[in-house]
Amino acid sequence: MAATIFVRERRKIGKGEKRPRFRVVGIHDTRTKIYADHLRKKELDEICRVTGAQLVLLDAEKGKGDGGGK
User: Fold this and answer.
1) Long-range contacts for 5-8 (Cβ within 8 Å, ≥24 apart)?
2) Burial annotation 29-43 (CB, 10 A radius, 16+ → b, else e)
3) Residue 11, Cβ neighbours under 10 Å: how many?
4) Considering the entire predicted model, what is its pTM?
5) Residue 10 pLDDT class (50, 70, 90 cuts)
6) For 15-67, how does the pLDDT look when each residue is reduced to its tens digit (9 = 90+)?
7) Does residue 20 contact residue 40 with C-beta atoms inside 8 Å?
8) What are the boundaries of each domain within the chain?
9) Which of 10, 43, 49, 55 is the most exposed place for a label (fewest CB within 10 A)?
């Protein structure tokens, strides 16, 4: 079974900013360790190409507010 990397777009980033847009949410079935908090799509694609993992982009609805946080 191939590994799967789950990511979502960051919420507090605007279009055109020169900051990484994706946050790794979880990794399934691999020994890969990712030490960065935020990654660019190009970096995620390269990790998936080298490791043979599948990339899953999660749909994070903005402003839904059902997470129970502060």
Assistant:
1) 5/30, 5/32, 5/34, 5/44, 5/47, 5/48, 5/53, 5/54, 5/55, 5/56, 6/56, 6/58, 7/39, 7/44, 7/55, 7/56, 7/57, 7/58, 8/57, 8/58, 8/59, 8/60
2) eeeeeeeeeebeeee
3) 10
4) 0.67
5) confident
6) 666 666 777 777 777 677 778 888 888 988 998 898 888 999 888 665 555 55
7) yes
8) 4-53
9) 49
Structure tokens at 16: 């055109």
- Position 22, amino acid: F
pLDDT of residue 45: 92
